[in-house]
Amino acid sequence: MPLIIKDEYPEKLFRDDGKRLDGRDKDELRPIKMEVGVLENADGSAYLEWGNNKIYAAVYGPREVHPHHLAKPDRGILRVFYRMATFSVFERKRPAPGRREKEISMVISDCLKPVLFLELYPGTAFEVYINVLDADGGTRCACITVAALALADAGVPMRSLVTAVAVGKIDGELITDLSGIEDKAGEADLPCAITWFNEELSLLQFDGETDLEEFSKCLGLAKNAFSKIYEIQLDALKKKYIEIQEEYSRGEKK
Amino acid sequence: MEHEKDEHIEDPTIDTSEDIDVDEFDDEQTSRDLVVPGEVLTEDTKNFLPGRGTIFNKDRSKIISLNIGLKQVKRNYINVIPLRGFYTPRPGDKVIALVTDKNPVKYICDINAKDRGILKPKNTVPRGKPRGYRGGAPDNHDNSTKKYEIGDILIVKVLSADRLNKPELTTVGKYLGKRRDGLVITIDPPKIPRVIGRSGSMIKMLKNLTKSNIFVTQNGRIWLKGEDLAHERLLIDAIRKIEKEAHTVGLTDRMSEYIENEKKIRGMN
Question: Are A156 and A61 in contact (CB under 8 A)?
Answer without folding.
Answer: yes
